[in-house]
Amino acid sequence: MDVQRNVRQGLLAAAGFAVALALGGSFACDSGSSSMPPAEPGTGEVPGGASALDPAACPPAFPWDAHGFVARYELPAARDPLGARLFPLFTILAGDPANRAALAADPALAALSAAARERVGQAVACDGDPACVSGALALDPADVAAAREWLIAEFGAPATALVSGHLLPSGAFMRWAVIPGEPAAALLGSAYDDAIGHVTELAASYAFGRPPEVLAPLVEGVAETLPADALWFEPIEALAIAGLRADGRDEAARYEPLDDGENAAALARMQRIDWSAWRFGAIVVPGQGPEDPDTVLSPLGRQRCDVAVKRWQARLAPFLFTSGGHVHPDRTRYAEALEMKRYLMEAHGVPEDAILVDPHARHTTTNVRNTTRLLLDAGMPPDTAVLVTSDIGQSFYIAALLKPRCERELGYVPWRGGAALGRTDSCLRPTPDVLFVDASDPLDP
């Protein structure tokens, strides 16, 4: 680990030692089959004098409003899991048979889509010249506007299956669903503008800006795999996704489907959980990556797991939830969450059905956002408190400094109520905003 990072962490930890116990109060947002210890949920004593960990310390600052969100909603089937993670609107439009049929039946949109498919052939003939490929595949603003107008006219009413059956229950468009007085047409329009804007940015960054020897095979791959009935946005979406994969930046979907993979055992057990019998819904353990590419799990990551497992052994929560992606060093082959899960199972004997993982988060902000998002998606009652257990330095940071960073980087605070419970623990109750899918970070939307 480099010297500067050690110094920063040391100073933060020192500050935590000095003030964390004094925090002890609220940092609420101002707005809107396991081998368990033989004890009842929530009744165990926590070693180290921290048995007073109490979710009552973080009452929600405002009530939960689902805005149409339905737990365990599933997107339509997608051809590419990375595309589904980044652009749920495109997946809803292209993957739902009824929506796709409606788009194909309109003569103007059908012509728009046919023209987009034809331009893929033109892009192949560019032989990788970036300006030529961009000229062929970049979306024309007039076409984008025309398609937007048609979508709103066709689907922009609250009763349509697109809005009431997908956009609202998914929660993925929560940023616009929560705006008071905004009609469904505005929600759909904002979702469309957001998806078009981000797919354009990603195509520019990961495809159009690549040298010809890289760009040419990307375009050829799109041409070979594009469906014969591709919609107008699918060629540029496919190129953007191909560019991300070619650059090794598939982290957002590298472990998908998590529900059927790393999280399958815990999610199956979750359906049998009596949430009211537990103090907390889960114990979140944020990752700490090493700087050395050959180090699997940093000592600080192990330390955080060692502290958190004591809370789990005391049955304060039914699940441990490790969070952290391929962050330190950049492009490391080790995902913090998965290595912490392995450590908990091997060093502490925690069964797999008691561990959830988030192998995507790259910052403390998204440790909080991603874990609470998954818990809500899986059906945890929204007023259930979550315990975040870490080292002293990060716990101080969460309690004292994280809120303004969330406001700056996420655009919202991912909790309705929160409190520092001691030197290594904080509790929080999630806000609906955490459900919003933000493609501005293609590595962790």
List the helices and strands and how they pair.
Blueprint lengths: L2 H21 L57 H6 L1 H8 L1 H9 L1 H19 L4 H8 L3 H15 L5 H10 L3 H4 L6 H25 L3 H14 L8 H13 L17 H7 L12 E4 L12 H15 L6 E4 L12 H13 L6 E4 L5 H15 L7 E4 L2 H9 L1 H8 L5 E6 L4 E6 L15
Helix pairs in contact: 1-17, 3-4, 5-6, 5-11, 7-10, 10-12, 11-12, 14-15
Can you characterise this structure?
- By secondary structure, the protein is α/β, with parallel strands linked by helices.
- Helix 5 (107-125) runs antiparallel to helix 6 (130-137) and helix 5 (107-125) packs across helix 11.
- It is 49% helix and 6% strand.
- It is built from 18 helices and six strands.
- It is globular.
- The chain folds into two domains: 3-60 and 256-435, no CATH class; 81-249, no CATH class.
- Strand 1 (283-286), helix 14 and strand 2 (320-323) form a beta-alpha-beta unit.
- Strands 3-2-1-4-6-5 form a six-stranded mixed sheet.
Q: What is the compact description of this entry?
A:
This protein is of the alpha/beta class. Helix content is 49%, strand content 6%.
Task: Name the descriptors.
445 residues, 2 domains, six-stranded mixed beta sheet, 18 helices, 6 strands, globular
What is the strand content? Answer: 5-15%
- Derived structural class: alpha/beta
Could you tell me the radius of gyration in angstroms?
A: 23 Å
Q: Round the mean pLDDT to the nearest integer and report it.
A: 89
Would you list the SSEs in sequence order as H and E? Answer: HHHHHHHHHHHHHEHEHEHEHHEE
Number of domains: 2
Give the beta-strand count.
Answer: 6
Total helix count? 18
End-to-end span in angstroms?
A: 28 Å
> What level of helicity do the residues show?
40-55%
The neighbouring-strand order within the major sheet is 3-2-1-4-6-5
Label the overall shape. Answer: globular
